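Repro:
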Amino acid sequence: MTTKKVEIVVSPKPAHFVGDGFRVHNFIPGASGLDMKRMDPFIMLDYNSKFHFNGSEKPRGVGVHPHRGFETVTIAYQGKVEHHDSSGGGGIIGQGDVQWMTAARGVLHKEYHEREWSKTGGIFQMVQLWVNLPAQDKMSKPKYQAIKNSDMKIVDLKENGFIEVIAGEYAGNKGPANTFTPVHMMNAKLKSGGKADFNFPAHFNTAALVIEGSIIVNGNEKAKTDQLVLFENKGEGFTIEASEDAVVLIISGEPINEPIVPHGPFVMNTREEIMQAFEDFNTGKFGYLED
């Protein structure tokens, strides 16, 4: 096994608000070197770094909006998110939980701070990823996976910490999420001085987002809170060591290698499919969801 070296360490761009409830730094596709083709199948990564929201009787968030052609994956690190979609999915994403929504042929969706959490407010921290779908699955039936933290596969690293496997596998331990293409997604929760080894195919697009603390990769590359580490598409294995207690989101996926044509909330393979998505949305084929 050869070493998967670091290509770049990316600091977050200035934050912007999505709706009034999500203050995010966009890494994919907004940061240099992290465009959709380079990161395929990960076509969007918004990171809501730690931000304090004051209490509000009216929950902050994002109103009804459509999606087609991909999956949204929401990981709540602090705070709670409530959501609903036109296919009947909905619920609360609690601290440590994950929502994996397959928009596929089209859903209407809304997401906002959970009502009771919103009343008191507090520190809010989350990640939302968009995972592309292959052409053959873009028009499949929408579905939804609610993944509680307790459902994740926990791999005990003893004095080093532990790994929470959301999708794919770590050291033969499989996560609960079902994916259309090979995708690995996990949280490494390492104690100060703790180490963890990772191994993914050389051609998989692989990155690590430092949610908490600071880390050293492969013994020499440093990354701190809110920075993203992009790995080269050479070699398979790498090591992360925590300089202090750390939480690191690891993502690695096999490129789909199909044309990517995005327009707002739709990601398809051709311009004609984008135009059809708008027509279907405007004629009510995505269903109905009250704002």
